[in-house]
Design a protein that fits this description.
This protein is an alpha/beta fold and 331 residues long. Helices cover 46% and strands 12% of the residues. The chain has a seven-stranded mixed sheet, sandwiched between helices.
C-alpha cells in the first residue's frame, strides 16, 4: 500500500511534534504554548497535516480540553490568514450551536438591536449536529439574505444594520473541520475557536458556551486577543441567549478589564420545551401577532446583556429597562 503515511519511515512529519506534546501519556503530555498552538493551527489551515494526524490532534485536545494559550494561538492563527478588512461593527455575535428545545430567541434580540441602529455581524455554521434548527435556516425563513462575501456584509450592514456570514465563507477549512462532528462523534476545538474569530474586528464580542468550564477560557482568550469589550455566558442550548429558568453568570471584559456579574433566575418553574419548532409561530412573535411568555422574557434579557457589552448603558439594571423599551418599540 502506497500512502502519504509511508513516506515518513525515515524522518518525522513536522506536525508529529504537536501530536506528541498533547498525547504523550498521563504524565508526559502537556498543553501547547501559544507559539506552538499558533504554528500547529497555521499548518492545519494551510492543509499541511495528514488526516490521521488531524483526527488524533483534535480528539486529544477534546479529551484534555484546550487551554487558554492553545485557544488564543488557534484563533490568532486563523485571524492572520483571513483577508477581511476592519468594518464599523458594534457587535460580533457568534452562533454555532443551533436550537433544539426552544426557539432561537437570541436572533430576535439581535434583529431588534439592528432595527434601533446597532450594527451587528453574526456568524455561524449549520448542520454539524443533527436534529437542531440553525440560525441560517431561520434567517432565510424570515427573508434575510445570507452573505457570501465581504461586499454582501457591507451592503447588509448599510441597509439593515445586520449581516449573517456563514463559517464556510470565513474559512472553508474551518467549515470542513466543524462538520467532522458526526464523523468523530464529538465536538472539537473548532466549535470553541470559531466563536472567537471576530472577523471584522467589531468593537464588542459575545460568545455562548454549553459547558460551564469553557466560560472562563473564552473570557481569558478574548482578553489575550486584545478584545476590549466582551461577554461569555452559558446560553440556552449553547447559543448566546439568556435562559430565564436559571441564573446567568456573565464572564466579561469591560473597557479592557475583566469582570463577572450574575443575573438572577427569572421564573419559578422550568419552562416547558417546545413540542416542535414551528417557525411560523416564531415569525408571528417577531411580527407582534402572537405572544410567547418564555420568548418575550428571553429576548429583552438577551438584548440587555448586549447593550451593556456594547457600552450603551452603565449598569445591568439600566440595560434591562432599555432592552424592554426597544423590544416594545421594535415596529
Amino acid at each position: 500500500m502506497n500512502t502519504k503515511r509511508n513516506l515518513y519511515k525515515d524522518f518525522e512529519h513536522p506536525f508529529a511534534q504537536f501530536v506528541r506534546i498533547v498525547g504523550k501519556g498521563k504524565n508526559g503530555a502537556r498543553s501547547l504554548t501559544y507559539d506552538e498552538a499558533y504554528q500547529a493551527f497555521s499548518m492545519i489551515l494551510k492543509d499541511e497535516v495528514l488526516d490521521v494526524q488531524l483526527g488524533a490532534f483534535l480528539m486529544l485536545l477534546r479529551v484534555k480540553e484546550e487551554s487558554v494559550n492553545e485557544l488564543t494561538g488557534f484563533v490568532q492563527a486563523t485571524k492572520d490568514q483571513l483577508n477581511f478588512q476592519t468594518l464599523d461593527v458594534d457587535l460580533d455575535w457568534s452562533s454555532y450551536a443551533g436550537k433544539r428545545k426552544h426557539y432561537p430567541w437570541f436572533l430576535l434580540a439581535a434583529l431588534t438591536l439592528a432595527k434601533h441602529g446597532y450594527k451587528i455581524v453574526m456568524h455561524g455554521a449549520s448542520g454539524h449536529t443533527m436534529n437542531r434548527v440553525y440560525t441560517e435556516q431561520v434567517l432565510e425563513y424570515l427573508g434575510f439574505p445570507i452573505c457570501q462575501n465581504e461586499t454582501d456584509v457591507k451592503q447588509q450592514l448599510a441597509q439593515h444594520n445586520f449581516a449573517y456570514l456563514p463559517l464556510s465563507v470565513i474559512s472553508p477549512v474551518l467549515e470542513d473541520l466543524i462538520n467532522l462532528r458526526n464523523v468523530m462523534g464529538l465536538r472539537s476545538p473548532i466549535h470553541t475557536l470559531a466563536r472567537l474569530i471576530n472577523p471584522f474586528n467589531a468593537k464588542a464580542t459575545m460568545q455562548a458556551i454549553f459547558h460551564p468550564a469553557y466560560r472562563s477560557s473564552h473570557q481569558q482568550a478574548a482578553f489575550q486577543l486584545g478584545y476590549k469589550n466582551s461577554a461569555v455566558i452559558k446560553g440556552e442550548g449553547g447559543e448566546f441567549e439568556r435562559n430565564p429558568d436559571a441564573k446567568t453568570l456573565i464572564c466579561g471584559i469591560k473597557n479592557g478589564e475583566l469582570y463577572e456579574h450574575e443575573l438572577p433566575k427569572l421564573t419559578d418553574n422550568r419552562s416547558p420545551i417546545e413540542e416542535e419548532l414551528d417557525l411560523a409561530v416564531f415569525k408571528a412573535v417577531w411580527e407582534g401577532t402572537q405572544n410567547h411568555e418564555y420568548g418575550e422574557i428571553a429576548v429583552p434579557e438577551t438584548m440587555g446583556i448586549a447593550l451593556y457589552t456594547m457600552g450603551v448603558v452603565n449598569s445591568y439594571e439600566e440595560a434591562m429597562l432599555t432592552a424592554r423599551k426597544l423590544w416594545k418599540n421594535r415596529f
